[in-house]
Write a structure and sequence with these properties.
Helix 1 packs parallel to helix 2 (44-54), helix 5 packs across helix 7 (139-150) and helix 7 packs across helix 9 (180-198). The protein has a single domain, classed as TIM Barrel, CATH 3.20.20.70. The chain is built from twelve helices and eight strands. The protein has an eight-stranded parallel β-barrel, surrounded by six helices. It has helices spanning 16-29, 44-54, 80-85, 96-101, 106-118, 131-135, 139-150, 156-159, 180-198, 200-205, 219-223, 240-251, and strands at 5-9, 37-41, 59-63, 90-93, 122-127, 163-166, 207-211, 230-233. Helix 11 (219-223) links the parallel strand 7 (207-211) and strand 8 (230-233). By secondary structure, it is of the alpha/beta class. The structure holds 2-phosphoglycolic acid.
């Protein structure tokens, strides 16, 4: 059984006060929701305060990146033990914006996943193809390589702890969502990859989120697909009303996984 998981990736948005305001509203509106897992990923500067607000609630807390060393002379970086220390449970790793603007590679993603797991954080590992790669029919080659290299040397037990997010880069922040069928096709490819890697039982356990222009009116159909187990939501997670609707609409199809 896979429980749907909806995570909000706030990116470079929200001061601490704005973050607290937003999560107070979520806490109130999500109090009765048990059908799906809910996570918010504020910027580093708001994590500790958001943790205080979320406390024993049913909303999980995630960071948007992590460095692979625990400590040392790495100016500007934040480590997995530091995140763990302030109550963070999840961490987004290898988001396409980090790959595009900050030199993230499958190799650094691999190191970060290992570091996160070592500290007991749950990685949300992102993969996704560029528009020109899709148009050149290279989607599966690109995703296959990202999966192979990002998950290199991970044991079956470690893989079982990971969440994968498939985010076609051309759909992020563009208002262009992949159709449910397009997304399902890649999700199925990812699950088949997991079957080959560690067998059917493991593949059936790993949750694969879709990301890219997820909105209240497309979430239900996306999660109705057999291999889509939730969403990583950017823009629409920054406003109370749209994120609440996304979470509630995802519940409509939560029973079937
Ligand atoms: P978007 O971003 O929902 O704004 O397209 C998704 C993401 O980058 O995770």
């Amino acid at each position: 059984m896979r429980k749907i998981i909806i995570a909000g990736n706030w990116k470079l948005n929200k001061t601490s006060l704005e973050a607290i305001d937003l999560v107070n509203g979520f806490k109130r509106d999500f109090v009765d929701i048990t059908e799906v897992d809910i996570v918010v990923c504020p910027p580093f500067t708001a994590l500790a305060e958001v943790h205080e607000v979320l406390n024993e609630s049913n909303i999980g807390l995630g960071a948007q990146d992590v460095y692979w060393e625990d400590s040392g002379a790495f100016t500007g970086e934040v480590s997995a033990p530091m995140l763990k220390d302030i109550g963070v449970q999840y961490v987004i790793i290898g988001h396409s914006e980090r790959r595009q603007f900050f030199g993230e590679t499958n190799q650094t993603v691999n190191k970060k996943i290992k570091a996160a797991l070592k500290s007991g954080l749950i990685p949300i590992a992102c993969v996704g193809e560029l528009l020109q790669e899709r148009e050149a029919n290279k989607t599966f080659v690109v995703i296959g390589k990202q999966l192979e290299e990002s998950f290199a040397e991970l044991t079956k037990e470690e893989m079982a702890k990971i969440i994968i997010a498939y985010e076609p880069v051309w759909a992020i922040g563009t208002g262009k969502t992949a159709t449910p069928a397009q997304a399902q096709e890649v999700h199925k490819f990812i699950r088949d990859f997991l079957v080959k890697l560690h067998g059917k039982e493991l593949a059936a356990r790993v949750r694969i989120q879709y990301g890219g222009s997820v909105k209240p009116d497309n979430i239900a159909e996306l999660v109705s697909q057999g291999d889509i187990d939730g969403a990583l939501v950017g823009g629409a997670s920054l406003q109370h009303e749209s994120f609440v609707k996304i979470v509630k609409n995802s519940c409509l199809n939560s029973a079937k996984k």
